[in-house]
Amino acid sequence: MICGSMFSGKTEELIRRLRRAVIARQTVEIFKPLTDKRYADEDVVSHDANRLSCTPVSSAMNILLLFQGAQVIGLDEAQFFDEDVVYVCRELANKGVRVIVAGLDMDYMGRPFGYMPSLMAIADDVQKVHAICQNCGAEALFSHRITSGSNLIHLGEKDHYIPLCRSCFSKANFAP
Ligand code: ZN
Question: Exposed (0-12), middle (13-18) or buried (19+): which is 86, by Cβ within 10 Å?
């Protein structure tokens, strides 16, 4: 598991690990939820435009249907997968597949996001990556929304959010 706020380099870390697998001549497949339409549909795209080919799926179970026997599976934007993603990751891992999952650990209110907590619980290893607080320069854990609305799907569109540390996030959201 690779998790953190927006701008924390989750996708970059996912791509770094997948590229190393490719260099090691391992077969790699990448999936992401169909809801992530920010960039080119067939690519996992990080903000620095590193990219690897990727299959968008409308449900987590489709990963098992489309799985072609790769040694390493990458899942990006995992916070948007349905609950079956937990079963799917466990099935693949039990088959000996190395499953690398990247996603937002918390939504814009600082709440655990989707099935990320369950995935973190069953993972062999969890890495939290951090952005830099735009307000004070400390390590940032939170994706603070700077536009109105409560649609979680907006999470990911970077012009609507800034990374904040716990102290600045708390002042921004909960100060009187
Ligand atoms: Zn701060």
Answer: middle
pTM of the model: 0.87
22 Cα: distance to centroid of ligand 1 (angstroms): 37
Residue (of 112, 125, 42, 41) closest to 78 by Cα position: 112
pLDDT of residue 155: 52
3-state secondary structure of 31: strand
CA–centroid distance, residue 94 to ligand 1 (Å):
41
Among 38, 28, 35, residue whose Cα is nearest residue 161? 38
Q: Which residue has the tokens 């990219």?
A: 51
- Residues taking part in catalysis: 77
* Interacting residues of 174 by C-beta distance below 8 A, sequence separation 6+: none
Q: For residues 28 and 82, give the distance between their C-alpha atoms in angstroms, rounded to a whole number.
A: 22
